[in-house]
């Protein structure tokens, strides 16, 4: 029987290997498995025999047992030659079937080949395995056997063995799918979100969520077991907090009274310090009623931390240790301490408070070199008291096409109303405009010296007030990096994780909608810099704060501050400087008066962090059930309408905007997701 099948099998095996995604799978599997490390950060190597024996999760070196308490004896992905002869029971989804001879079974751990029995006596088993549609869930029992010589699939981690089935049970059949579950089949994001439970079956989503779980586990270990933190849950039904982000409002049964969902557990964690719980942490869900962006969504998760009797350096060292400890061991280790820039330095060199420090192209002030320029717009700027000329040197910028430089100039004009001039101080190729040619020879050599310009570099010049000139060049720096990378250069090493502390932020910023008034740069509980306290009463806009942000590869992944623990100072800042209603915070102000210890904290954006670690394109790829770009749950259609009688207990009614007939009539309509 066996020999009769071999010629058919050979052909099938050859075709099976590329299409079964085994390359991708083994890559995924080893990434995941290398993600489990010993607490000391040593890499645990994957032995071929048993995956579970090699996974070390806790300081006691306990090993996760993937098949305890359940119907299976092993996972599909763990079987190797060392299991030969073992009787196993596997549960999984049908990934492929080939000519009713092989079936590839999948679970989170990987793929395994099952040989469909051809003998007459196994007709019932064959019927189940041949008729069940792809993605049906089945349980098979049989023996681990080696594949015939020459028929191994080295691209598949389980490629040396196959399962000779004795019994099979169809646990549940799968109807026609809206899309193929296989990772390599492209799907729109809307479809993935509508059928999220199917999308979660992909190896990529399995990897992202499992890596997230591992990192959180290690963080808990580090904080609770190594440093005595206490994990405390705080309420999600809360009230409005003055200042900060927009909150979601929840109606209550008391007329005119509303809860708010907390934008963060900020007040509670400070109150815990007053309560003597002096090392708090929580994996906290936070809510902000802001539009979704690739790195934001209305509900998100923070690793929220607060400590008493700590200063800024103490918090920074804690976070560096936390990230080092929880970092996946398949990535380069985290090097500590992280470098640090002041807010002013970050703005001057990178035009932003979240610089991507994986590459150079820093902003340089070239006002002195061009002091006597004849270029009109530069001259104009330098004649003003706050006027400056700034530049970035795009290394190997001659790789950019003329149309790239045109698009850069247009971007600056459209978004910042700023003129930008590209010059090629050393290039043999010259696309200089007549304006650029009026840069004098001595200015050209001055620029080459100051900016260390090389043959293929392009310089982008702009002029104006310091902050504006820096902001535009900061944006262009990133635009140029994108354009150069699109032309095949690598500026940002994808394996590099470049952490940076940004410190010494201003305590207040002018309000966007009314620049005559101040708002908190972080939040109103942030303490002023000790050396600037007096300025609070004279020039508050000049006060620096004890606020620190953690930046990774150009994204803000954390922020925190040392807090005000003096009730009088807190009241002065809220009432006099921020013009907030202090009654809303009377509980906190009172608590500060009852022996509040000095304290400070930080919150890490878990979704953003995991997104960067996994290289996912959006935070939605590291959240099991995310909201769509418009803040909707495309699977369940939340938010949803409620009939007026259900709103009555809350004493509210919908005031429908004009032209909302469609929405009104959708009250009883079946749901149709966003496209
Ligand atoms: N609660 C702050 C936030 O959510 C972080 C902090 O100051 O600890 O941004």
Task: Give a verbal description of the structure.
- It is a single chain.
- This protein is α+β, with helices and mostly antiparallel strands and 675 residues long.
- It contains 20 helices and 21 strands.
- The strands form five sheets. Strands 6-9-10-21-20-19-16-11 form an eight-stranded mixed sheet, sandwiched between helices. It has a five-stranded mixed β-barrel with strand order 1-2-3-5-4. A four-stranded antiparallel sheet has the order 12-13-15-14.
- A hairpin with a 6-residue loop joins β7 and β8 (258-260).
- The longest helix has 24 residues, at 203-226.
- 36% of the residues are buried.
- The model is unreliable at 1-27 and 33-60 (pLDDT under 50).
- Bound molecules: aspartic acid (ASP).
- Aspartic acid (ASP) is lined by residues 264, 266, 302, 559-561, 601-603.
Structure described in brief:
The protein is an alpha+beta fold and about 675 residues long. It is built from 20 helices and 21 strands. The strands form five sheets. An eight-stranded mixed beta sheet has the order 6-9-10-21-20-19-16-11, with helices on both faces. Strands 1-2-3-5-4 form a five-stranded mixed beta barrel.
Bound molecules: aspartic acid
- Amount of helix: 25-40%
What is the strand content? 15-25%
- The tally of beta strands, per DSSP, is 21
Structural class: alpha+beta
The gyration radius over C-alpha positions equals 30 Å
Any idea what the shape is?
globular
Low-pLDDT residue spans? 1-27, 33-60
- N-end to C-end Cα span: 52 Å
Within the largest sheet, what's the order of strands?
6-9-10-21-20-19-16-11
Q: Could you tell me the mean pLDDT? A: 88
Oligomer: single chain
Number of helices: 20
- Major sheet description: 8 strands, mixed
């Amino acid at each position: 029987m066996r020999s009769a099948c071999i010629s058919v099998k050979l052909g099938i095996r050859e075709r099976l290997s590329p299409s079964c995604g085994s390359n991708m799978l083994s890559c995924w599997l080893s990434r995941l498995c290398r993600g489990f490390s010993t607490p000391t950060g040593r890499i645990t190597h994957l032995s071929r025999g048993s995956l579970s024996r090699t996974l070390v999760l806790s300081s006691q070196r306990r090993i996760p047992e993937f098949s305890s308490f359940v119907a299976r004896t092993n996972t599909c992905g763990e079987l190797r030659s060392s299991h030969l002869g073992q009787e196993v029971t596997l549960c999984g989804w049908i990934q492929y079937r080939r000519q009713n001879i092989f079936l590839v079974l999948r679970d989170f751990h990987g793929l395994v080949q099952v040989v469909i029995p051809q003998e007459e006596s196994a007709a019932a088993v064959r019927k189940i395995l041949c008729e069940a549609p792809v993605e049906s869930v089945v349980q098979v029992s049989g023996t681990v056997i080696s594949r015939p010589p020459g028929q191994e699939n080295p691209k598949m981690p389980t490629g040396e063995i196959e399962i000779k089935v004795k019994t099979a049970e169809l646990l549940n059949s799968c109807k026609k799918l809206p899309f193929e579950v296989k990772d390599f089949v492209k799907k729109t994001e809307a479809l993935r979100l509508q059928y999220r439970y199917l999308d979660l079956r992909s190896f990529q989503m399995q990897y992202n969520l499992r890596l997230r779980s591992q990192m959180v586990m290690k963080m808990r270990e580090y904080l609770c077991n190594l440093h005595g933190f206490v994990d405390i849950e705080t309420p999600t039904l809360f009230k409005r907090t003055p200042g900060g982000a927009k909150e979601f409002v929840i109606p209550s049964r008391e007329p005119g009274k509303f809860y708010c969902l907390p934008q963060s557990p900020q007040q509670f964690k400070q109150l815990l310090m007053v309560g003597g719980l002096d090392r708090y942490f929580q994996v906290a869900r936070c809510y902000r009623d802001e539009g979704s962006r690739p790195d934001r969504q209305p509900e998100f998760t923070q690793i929220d931390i607060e400590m008493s009797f700590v200063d800024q350096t103490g918090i920074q060292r804690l976070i560096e240790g936390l990230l080092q400890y929880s970092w996946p061991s398949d990535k380069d280790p985290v090097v500590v301490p992280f470098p640090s820039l002041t807010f002013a330095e970050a703005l001057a060199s990178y035009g932003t408070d979240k610089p991507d420090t994986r590459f150079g192209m820093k902003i340089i002030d070239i006002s002195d070199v061009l002091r006597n320029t004849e270029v009109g717009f530069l001259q104009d700027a330098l004649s003003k008291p706050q006027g400056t000329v700034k530049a970035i040197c795009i290394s190997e910028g001659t790789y950019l096409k003329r149309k790239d430089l045109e698009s850069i100039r247009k971007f600056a004009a459209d978004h910042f109303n700023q003129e930008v001039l590209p010059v090629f101080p050393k290039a043999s190729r010259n696309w200089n405009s007549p304006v650029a040619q009026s840069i004098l020879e001595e200015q050209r050599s001055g620029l080459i010296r100051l900016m260390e310009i090389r043959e293929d570099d392009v310089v982008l010049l702009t002029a104006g007030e310091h902050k504006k000139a820096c902001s535009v060049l900061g944006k262009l720096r990133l635009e140029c990096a994108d354009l150069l990378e699109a032309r095949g250069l690598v500026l940002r090493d994808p394996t590099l994780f470049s952490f940076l502390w940004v410190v010494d932020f201003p305590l207040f910023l002018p309000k966007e909608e009314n620049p005559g008034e101040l708002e908190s740069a972080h939040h109103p509980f942030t303490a002023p810099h000790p050396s600037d306290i007096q300025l609070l009463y004279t020039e508050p806009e000049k006060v620096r704060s004890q606020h620190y942000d953690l930046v990774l590869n150009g994204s803000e992944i954390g922020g925190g501050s040392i807090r005000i623990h003096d009730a009088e100072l807190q009241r002065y800042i809220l009432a006099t400087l921020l013009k907030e209603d202090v009654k809303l915070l009377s509980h906190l102000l009172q608590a500060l008066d009852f022996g509040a210890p000095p304290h400070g904290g930080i919150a890490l954006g878990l979704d953003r962090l995991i997104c960067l670690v996994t290289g996912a394109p959006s935070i939605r790829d590291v959240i099991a059930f995310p909201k769509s770009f418009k803040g909707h749950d495309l699977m369940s259609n939340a938010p949803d309408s409620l009939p007026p009688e259900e709103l009555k207990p809350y004493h509210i009614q919908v005031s429908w905007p004009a032209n909302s007939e469609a929405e009104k009539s959708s009250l009883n309509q079946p749901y149709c997701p966003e496209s």
